[in-house]
Amino acid sequence: MSLMRFNVRALDVDPFSVELRLGEAAYLQAFNDVVKSRATRTRIDSVTDIHGTRVDGDHVPMAFVDHYMAFLGQQGDTHPFISNLFSNKLTDNVANHMIRSVMPQEVLMLFFYR
Questions:
Q1: What's this model's pTM, rounded to 2 decimal places?
Q2: Any idea which UniProt keywords this protein has (predicted)?
Q3: Residue 28 falls within a domain, yes or no?
Q4: Please, which residues bridge with residue 47 across strands?
C-alpha cells in the first residue's frame, strides 16, 4: 500500500484490518524518519568563535553563550525610548486575552470543531 494512498477514514471503518494497520505503521515510520532528519539538519555541531577558534560538540552551546555575553555586555550610547513610535496599540484587556491560559478543550474545539 502506498503511503500516499493510506486513508485514515478506511481505518476508522475497519479498525482490525491488518493491511490498513501495516499501512498506518509504514506511514508513522516515514513521518518519524522525516522528523528525525529535520532535527539532525537543524542541529549545530560546530562553530567558529570570534577569535577564529573552531568549537565542536558539547562546547558549542557555551560558545553561543560566551558570544552573546560579549555582544550584549558591551557599553554603548543609548537613546531614550520614543514613546509615540507605535501609534496602534492594543488595549490592556485585549493584550491580556492574548496571553491567557488556554484549556486543552479550547484547542481541540479550535482545530477539530470549527
A1: 0.35
A2: Nucleotidyltransferase, RNA-directed DNA polymerase, Transferase
A3: yes
A4: 55
